[in-house]
Amino acid sequence: MLLNMPALSIRNGIVPAMTIIDTALADGYSLAMQPVTEKILLDQARDGQDQAFAQLIEAHSEKIITVAWRMVGQRDIAEDIAQEAFLRLYKSLANFRGESSVGTWLYRTATRLSIDHLRREQLRRKIFFFRSTDSGLADPVDLAISPSASPQDILLAKETQERIQQVLNTLPARQKAVFVLRQMEGLTLKEIAVTLGLQEGTVKSHLHRAVTRFREEFFQKKEA
Amino acid sequence: MNKQDICHKEQLTLYHYAELSPTQRCAFETHLQGCPACRTALEEIQSSLADVHATELKLDSAQKQRFVEKVTSSTRRRPLSNPRIWGGGLAAVGMLALVIVSLYSVDQTVQIVPARPAMADFEVLEQLDMLQELDLLQKLELLQELDKLG
Predict the structure, then answer these.
(1) Which of B6, B47, B13, B12 is nearest to B30 (CA)?
(2) Count of Cβ atoms closer than 10 Å to residue A5 Cβ
(3) C-alpha dihedral sign at A23, A25, A30, A31
(4) Chain A contact for B135, CB < 8 A?
(5) Which of B16, B55, B59 faces A144 most closely, judged by CB atoms?
(6) What ipTM was assigned to the predicted interfaces of this complex?
(7) Backbone dihedral angles phi then psi of residue A4, each to the nearest 5 degrees
(8) Does A182 touch chain B (CB under 8 A)?
């Protein structure tokens, strides 16, 4: 899929007009820009041109915030995670060898940061007996419902989505990550293994446990 | 195949996600025809995951711009470490150290210590940069200790 992206074209004379190629990579993340353009922007960012780095952020922000948001369920935290991923890229610019695309690197970093966040959050809840204060979870729910749906449909969809979020929140961090990457992001097991730096067998096992737990809890809640 | 081999529960999940090899898939489908328990389990998986959709997040240009500004303002607070500057600085320090050592080497009692290569010093400095993450680790360790205490 080829698209023109006016927001990224000629800006302060840094980079000529560019196109986006939405091509699935082996490790699951689509190319947000042509490799040549990306290389030019990386070189410029290394030379201290903030505008070039800003263009990289603009090209990848939506995808990176989205994956973090799907994993942590809260928009503000997802933005913080995405921000940290971009800051780490900035700090690593000098050593960035381009073995993977910037998008893939950011995607991996954001998913791993999301897992760290989920672990810390689960531990904190366990210690301090935090009740689920994730009213922010209503955020993805609201966005998921079609505005043209009837009030009854909206209510039903909200209830279902809330139930799904509750079940998702009971999953351990890694299980949740594997589940989200497979079920929502559509990555293959191989791609998930690369993204999270795990063995494929481990990913299978996490996915199976997540699905089993999800199924059991979902059915229990449904019956209740 | 005996029942224990066939009723491998993980295969249900892998079958649902089309992650079985063609041979495994064929064998599993044959098994499904004769195993009501697996059929029920599969139906439950399909039913419970049917409503789990990927919600899309769309950022308009203003939101994107706000995010870009947020990140770039942070990068200004965290200046990019330039390896050339570090390398140059370390090389100068190394040279100075060599001069001092060579001056002292006139005195035979002083042992000449070979200067560390500049790149090794650079790696140490890079690791020092990682100390920024230390507070996060300390928090995590504190939480883990509290967890152990119950």
Answers:
(1) B6
(2) 15
(3) negative
(4) no
(5) B55
(6) 0.71
(7) -85, 145
(8) yes
Query: B53, B55, B146: which to substitute to probe chain A, counting the most A Cβ within 10 Å?
Result: B55
Q: Is A78 helix (H, G, I), strand (E, B) or coil?
A: helix
Chain A CB contacts of B83 under 8 Å are 94-95
**Closest residue on chain A to B146 (Cα):** A127
Q: Whats the size of chain B, residue-wise? A: 150
pLDDT in tens, A35-69: 788 888 888 988 888 899 999 999 999 999 999 99
Strand partners, A30: A24
pTM above 0.95, yes or no: no
Q: Which pairs with CB-CB distance under 8 Å and at least 24 residues apart come from B7-13?
A: B7/B31, B7/B35, B7/B37, B7/B38, B9/A208, B9/A212, B9/B41, B10/A204, B10/A205, B10/A208, B12/B38, B12/B41, B12/B42, B12/B45, B13/A204, B13/A207, B13/A208, B13/A211, B13/A212, B13/B45
